[in-house]
Design brief:
With 225 residues, this protein is an alpha/beta fold. The chain has nine helices and seven strands.
Length: 225
Amino acid sequence: LTRRYTTEIINEIGPEKDIPAPDVGTSPREMAWIFDTYSMNKGHSVLGVVTGKPLTIGGSLGRVEATSRGALFCIRDAVAKLDKRIAGMKVVVQGFGNVGSYLAQFLHQEGATVVAISDSATALYNPKGIDVPAAFAYKAENRTLVGLKDAETITNEELVLLDCDILAPCALEQVITEENANQVKASIICEGANGPVTPSADAILEDKGILILPDILANAGGVVV
């Protein structure tokens, strides 16, 4: 399916045109298929056609964590400008894929208390802090966060509205809308996903004095690499 799709859009992509990157449901494997199919059609190896390839075929070291690391740098600088420190802050991370899982780890390493995480199947909350390294290992082994111990199950809708210092929506678009923006309690929103805050919600959050680190900056780390 991936190879056929690549063949269909072959005139729309290319190093000088449009370079696809990994997103929901894709990994280095799928990016390798796109690179290979494109190269077969062109008759020579075209490494620049996609990002996120495996290291063995021209991928970049650190690419897997790069988006999250970029988001961390943005959060770190924003917090410093507010004369605060990440250590001790309460963080909620929605999404535990490539971006969310590493961002949760990085913020945990910086001393933040990650009080809630979620994936496509469940959302988990512990006001005292979730054991992020344990959650990371659990997800890698079970491919889901369902069943993780020492955390209360909540809904993804409740997760976005939790009382926290930093909210990082790292899953899908349009998570914060005009319907729920008034109930958001975070001080800083870091857009790890593409377009998680709708334009109408953006205006409401602005009026509430919530600082938004926009996706075009906050999740650009992977593309920069």
